[in-house]
Amino acid sequence: MTLTERFQTALASSAVDLPGPELLPERLARACARVLPVDGAGISLFFASDRRLPLGASDPVAAEAERLQFTAGEGPCLTSHATGDIVIADEATLRSRWPGYYDPLVTRTPIRGTISLPLRDELRGIGALDLYVVPPRDVGSLSLQDALEVSEQVAAVLQAQSLRDRVSSDGPAWLDAPAAERRSMVWQAIGFVNSALSIPSPDALALLRAHAYADGLSLDDLAARVITRRVPAAELSLDADTSG
């Protein structure tokens, strides 16, 4: 059986536990992790350099790795998106290039290596596949050709579903993935901070990131607290004033 055939089989089998078109990205991530010598996978979209939308992860650890990268505002996937290149990072590279991501990553997850691949075709420039490895695996154990073949399958399946959904809706159902719905709270929180503190969106995002990082929270968790007013915008402003 070819790698593509094994991927399609894994994708079909994951539909038993993950039915519904909005869970397609999660099914794809699980299939990636099953057919490649990696320990986790995640799929995301970028609508701007600071607007990363997670679509699905193979498991909770992979989902946490994505949240930590978004909270830190740095990491291999963000670099891959900015450059358009594949980024392969072992633990030493993670530590030296993205220390703000490395520290919480090794504290909260067993992940010690990542491979970030931009998706191609219609998702070029906006789609990304992250692959994660846990010792004793290392990034060198993965065939880049195999990773690219699987990433092409991911892009093709997402695009095919998007074309089918375009006939009857405003967008693909996989954009309603639970992870994407959760991330949307960050954009709402940015709006709250915009209004309360009269600062532009990039500054509001930076303020939220600093507060989340200092408190050991993910940006998603902090956003939920801001929206429910458990963390008032005035408190964010006060922390920013006293920390400078």
From TrEMBL:
<dbReference type="GO" id="GO:0003723">
    <property type="term" value="F:RNA binding"/>
</dbReference>
<feature type="domain" description="ANTAR">
    <location>
        <begin position="159"/>
        <end position="227"/>
    </location>
</feature>
<dbReference type="InterPro" id="IPR005561">
    <property type="entry name" value="ANTAR"/>
</dbReference>
<dbReference type="InterPro" id="IPR029016">
    <property type="entry name" value="GAF-like_dom_sf"/>
</dbReference>
<protein>
    <recommendedName>
        <fullName>ANTAR domain-containing protein</fullName>
    </recommendedName>
</protein>
